[in-house]
Amino acid sequence: MVYKMSLRTTSNTSTVTFNPFKGYIRPDFFNEFIGRSLAGRIFIQQTCTKKRWEIPLQIISATNAVIINTWRVNNTPLRFIPDLINAPTTYYSVTIQNKEAALEEMTWPLFNNKWNGKLMLQEY
Questions:
Q1: For residues 81-105, b (16+ Cβ closer than 10 Å) or e, as one string?
Q2: pLDDT tens, 3-12?
């Protein structure tokens, strides 16, 4: 299946459109609380379910890479459209969850000024 995805700020001032590289995963993230009752029994309480995406990217322009890395540093709230082709009106409110820069410059000479990396998004 071919995906075309988009990230944009909630105010629609900037948009980055991209295609994920092979290895795209859409797991769910469960927010759980594990506790112990007065009687000593362990219980797990699921407080909510948030969607989480891991999107491998390759050959991203330097301009888009700078925009994405700036959004990560500023913890900018974004609108993520996971399928621009089949469902262009479906979006999720997300933030970038990468611990370090999401994208790094590719080192091979043919990929001058191109970037790659793994983008980790989570609903808020």
A1: bbebeeeeeebbebbbbbeeebbee
A2: 678 888 888 7
